[in-house]
Amino acid sequence: MSTISDFNQKSCAVTDGEHRIQLELLQALCAATQENCSPASAGEILQQLVSYSEAHFMSEELLMRLKSYDDYEDHVSDHIHMMEVLAEIESAHASGKSALVSGQAESVLEFIKQHIATRDQRFADFMLAEE
Protein backbone atom coordinates (compact mmCIF):
# COMPACT_ATOMS: atom_id res chain seq x y z
CA MET A 1 0.00 0.00 0.00
CA SER A 2 1.30 3.48 -0.89
CA THR A 3 1.77 6.10 1.76
CA ILE A 4 1.56 9.89 1.55
CA SER A 5 5.36 9.86 1.67
CA ASP A 6 5.49 7.65 -1.43
CA PHE A 7 3.05 9.93 -3.23
CA ASN A 8 5.00 13.06 -2.33
CA GLN A 9 8.32 11.58 -3.43
CA LYS A 10 6.85 10.33 -6.72
CA SER A 11 5.19 13.71 -7.34
CA CYS A 12 8.48 15.52 -6.80
CA ALA A 13 10.31 13.08 -9.09
CA VAL A 14 7.72 13.51 -11.86
CA THR A 15 7.80 17.30 -11.53
CA ASP A 16 11.62 17.30 -11.62
CA GLY A 17 11.51 15.25 -14.82
CA GLU A 18 9.05 17.70 -16.35
CA HIS A 19 11.34 20.59 -15.41
CA ARG A 20 14.26 18.89 -17.18
CA ILE A 21 12.22 18.52 -20.36
CA GLN A 22 11.04 22.12 -20.17
CA LEU A 23 14.63 23.35 -19.75
CA GLU A 24 15.81 21.16 -22.63
CA LEU A 25 13.13 22.64 -24.90
CA LEU A 26 14.12 26.17 -23.88
CA GLN A 27 17.79 25.41 -24.48
CA ALA A 28 16.92 23.93 -27.88
CA LEU A 29 14.96 27.07 -28.77
CA CYS A 30 17.86 29.29 -27.69
CA ALA A 31 20.29 27.21 -29.76
CA ALA A 32 17.98 27.18 -32.78
CA THR A 33 17.62 30.96 -32.79
CA GLN A 34 21.32 31.61 -32.15
CA GLU A 35 22.36 29.23 -34.93
CA ASN A 36 19.88 30.78 -37.36
CA CYS A 37 18.17 27.48 -38.08
CA SER A 38 15.12 27.50 -40.30
CA PRO A 39 12.07 29.38 -39.04
CA ALA A 40 10.08 26.15 -39.38
CA SER A 41 12.47 24.28 -37.05
CA ALA A 42 12.46 27.07 -34.47
CA GLY A 43 8.68 27.28 -34.73
CA GLU A 44 8.33 23.56 -34.10
CA ILE A 45 10.49 23.77 -30.97
CA LEU A 46 8.57 26.83 -29.82
CA GLN A 47 5.22 25.08 -30.27
CA GLN A 48 6.46 22.04 -28.34
CA LEU A 49 7.68 24.34 -25.55
CA VAL A 50 4.36 26.18 -25.34
CA SER A 51 2.29 22.99 -25.34
CA TYR A 52 4.54 21.27 -22.84
CA SER A 53 4.63 24.30 -20.53
CA GLU A 54 0.84 24.58 -20.56
CA ALA A 55 0.47 20.92 -19.60
CA HIS A 56 3.21 21.06 -16.98
CA PHE A 57 1.85 24.18 -15.33
CA MET A 58 -1.67 22.76 -15.29
CA SER A 59 -0.55 19.54 -13.59
CA GLU A 60 1.64 21.40 -11.11
CA GLU A 61 -1.16 23.82 -10.25
CA LEU A 62 -3.61 20.95 -9.73
CA LEU A 63 -1.15 19.28 -7.40
CA MET A 64 -0.70 22.54 -5.47
CA ARG A 65 -4.46 22.84 -5.06
CA LEU A 66 -4.73 19.22 -3.99
CA LYS A 67 -2.13 19.88 -1.31
CA SER A 68 -3.62 23.28 -0.26
CA TYR A 69 -0.27 24.88 -0.98
CA ASP A 70 0.11 28.19 0.87
CA ASP A 71 2.13 29.95 -1.86
CA TYR A 72 -0.19 28.97 -4.70
CA GLU A 73 -1.05 32.49 -5.94
CA ASP A 74 2.56 33.72 -6.15
CA HIS A 75 3.69 30.50 -7.78
CA VAL A 76 0.93 30.64 -10.38
CA SER A 77 1.76 34.29 -11.14
CA ASP A 78 5.15 33.07 -12.39
CA HIS A 79 3.41 30.53 -14.63
CA ILE A 80 1.14 33.23 -16.04
CA HIS A 81 4.10 35.51 -16.67
CA MET A 82 6.01 32.80 -18.51
CA MET A 83 3.03 31.90 -20.71
CA GLU A 84 2.55 35.61 -21.56
CA VAL A 85 6.20 35.88 -22.57
CA LEU A 86 5.94 32.70 -24.63
CA ALA A 87 2.92 34.21 -26.41
CA GLU A 88 5.04 37.30 -27.17
CA ILE A 89 7.78 35.05 -28.54
CA GLU A 90 5.25 33.23 -30.71
CA SER A 91 4.07 36.58 -32.06
CA ALA A 92 7.62 37.75 -32.76
CA HIS A 93 8.41 34.46 -34.47
CA ALA A 94 5.29 34.68 -36.63
CA SER A 95 6.36 38.22 -37.63
CA GLY A 96 9.82 37.01 -38.66
CA LYS A 97 11.66 38.88 -35.90
CA SER A 98 14.20 36.18 -35.11
CA ALA A 99 16.61 38.53 -33.30
CA LEU A 100 13.86 39.41 -30.85
CA VAL A 101 12.98 35.72 -30.40
CA SER A 102 16.57 34.86 -29.50
CA GLY A 103 16.78 37.49 -26.77
CA GLN A 104 13.39 36.64 -25.37
CA ALA A 105 14.17 32.92 -25.34
CA GLU A 106 17.35 33.56 -23.32
CA SER A 107 15.36 35.71 -20.90
CA VAL A 108 12.72 32.99 -20.43
CA LEU A 109 15.44 30.40 -19.86
CA GLU A 110 16.94 32.48 -17.05
CA PHE A 111 13.49 33.19 -15.61
CA ILE A 112 12.48 29.52 -15.53
CA LYS A 113 15.82 28.47 -14.02
CA GLN A 114 15.21 30.97 -11.21
CA HIS A 115 11.59 29.82 -10.86
CA ILE A 116 12.66 26.19 -10.51
CA ALA A 117 15.42 27.04 -8.03
CA THR A 118 13.11 29.10 -5.82
CA ARG A 119 9.36 28.62 -6.23
CA ASP A 120 9.47 25.00 -7.37
CA GLN A 121 12.04 24.13 -4.73
CA ARG A 122 9.82 25.67 -2.06
CA PHE A 123 6.89 23.59 -3.30
CA ALA A 124 9.01 20.42 -3.30
CA ASP A 125 10.10 21.18 0.27
CA PHE A 126 6.45 21.73 1.22
CA MET A 127 5.49 18.38 -0.30
CA LEU A 128 8.28 16.50 1.44
CA ALA A 129 7.50 18.17 4.79
CA GLU A 130 4.01 16.64 4.64
CA GLU A 131 5.42 13.16 5.08
Description:
By secondary structure, the chain is an all-alpha fold. It has one domain (4-129): Four Helix Bundle (Hemerythrin (Met), subunit A) (Up-down Bundle). 87% of the residues lie in helices and 0% in strands. It contains 4 helices and no strands. The longest helix is centred in the last third of the chain and has 32 residues, at 98-129. The chain is elongated.
Mean pLDDT: 86
- Share of residues in helices: over 70%
Order of helices and strands: HHHH
The named CATH superfamily: Hemerythrin-like
Anisotropy-based shape: elongated
CATH architecture name: Up-down Bundle
Main beta-sheet annotation:
none
Q: The CATH topology is what?
A: Four Helix Bundle (Hemerythrin (Met), subunit A)
Residue stretches low in confidence (pLDDT < 50, at least 5 long) are 1-8
Instruction: Tally the helices.
Output: 4
Q: What is the highest CATH level, the class?
A: Mainly Alpha
Alpha-carbon Rg, integer: 16 Å
Number of domains: 1
Number of strands: 0
Q: Strand fraction band?
A: under 5%
State the end-to-end CA separation: 15 Å
